[in-house]
Design goal:
Blueprint: E1 2-6, H1 16-29, E2 33-36, H2 44-50, H3 58-68, E3 73-76, E4 79-80, H4 86-99, E5 104-109, H5 114-120, H6 127-143, E6 149-150, E7 155-156, E8 173-176, H7 180-189, E9 192-196, H8 200-216, E10 225-234, E11 249-251, H9 253-266, E12 270-274, H10 280-294
Length: 298
């Protein structure tokens, strides 16, 4: 199982250079990937967590990380598609893909912060349809010399679009969420499933359903990349549930490794670990502990 680390650009860390330093530390310790999240406004639970502290832009963070590293993959967990204009987003992601030497993993979702949609003037009720159109538009922009796309919200024709991503046909599209709509989105557009807040048993059940849907659609389910974003707390308490029912990583090194092995056995290929802290030194310590103590046990 591969391990990734969530850079706390969403936690109110004021020293942005230290966040880039975490990406370098993750690479040096052998992490497979580093990831960043997205919100544009301090909405709902984000406002409660951050107050006046910053929530940094994800693609700018990945640009800096791309320049500071050479091997670690760079993921979004996740970009909220209905908030983005496809050509601008497509050009930014393609540029980072070239800048990094083809290391981008494109995690996407639709978000649930209705107040944020209202503030952006984007209809919350159409977020799923908009997300599907953005993905369809991006695939056209990234693969066709003169992109042709006709949707309800986006239409493109007659003009060239460049650059195309370095990865072919484009960076892996990893769809977040576990709703029926998210599953359909994976089948139609996705190269992988990037889930969260699920137990190994829930992942296994969802993956079985997803593989059936993929097969029915004539797609090879074995080509899917399966990853999960999951929070970690090292402490002296033992998990209260059996490994298959745990939705987080908690306890000792062995407790955490046991849970990760359960996710591995459920079909998860990569776990993206996060901790709820603004202390960069704590992130460095946890990251070191994960890669030196936990990783060898999975």
């Amino acid at each position: 199982m591969k391990l990734g680390y969530s850079i706390p650009s969403n936690r109110g860390v004021t020293d942005i250079g230290a966040l880039v330093g975490l990406a370098k530390t993750a690479e040096a310790l052998g992490c497979h990937s580093v990831w960043v999240s997205e919100h544009l406004f301090h909405s709902a639970y984000v406002a409660e967590r951050l107050g006046d502290l910053p929530y940094w832009d994800p693609l700018t963070m990945l640009t800096a990380a791309a320049c500071a590293t050479s091997k670690v993959r760079l993921g979004t967990s996740v970009l909220v598609l209905p908030w983005h204009d496809p050509p601008r987003l497509g050009k930014m992601v393609a540029t980072i893909d070239h800048l990094s030497g083809g290391r981008v993993d494109f995690g996407v979702g639709v978000a649930t912060t209705e107040d944020e949609f209202n503030n952006l003037g984007v209809d919350f009720k159409t977020r799923g349809k908009r997300a599907d159109e953005v993905l369809g538009a991006l695939q056209a922009l990234w693969t066709q010399p003169v992109p042709e796309f006709q949707g309800e919200f986006y239409q493109y024709s007659g003009l060239k679009f460049s650059p195309k991503p370095l990865q072919t046909p484009y960076p892996p599209i990893l769809v977040g969420g576990s709703s029926p709509a998210a599953m359909r989105r994976i089948v139609r557009y996705g190269d992988g499933w990037h889930t969260l807040r699920q137990s190994p048993d829930e992942v296994a059940a969802g993956l079985a359903k997803l593989k059936s849907m993929m097969a029915e659609a004539g797609r090879d389910p074995e080509e899917l990349k399966i990853s999960i974003s999951i929070e970690l707390v090292f402490d002296a308490s033992s998990p209260s549930r059996p490994p298959g029912e745990r939705r987080g990583l908690r306890g000792s090194d062995e407790d955490v490794a046991e849970t990760l092995r359960a996710f591995r056995d459920a079909g998860v290929q990569e776990a993206v670990i996060s901790i709820a802290s603004t202390d960069v030194a704590e992130h460095e310590a946890v990251l070191t502990r994960v890669m030196t103590k936990v990783a060898p046990a999975i």
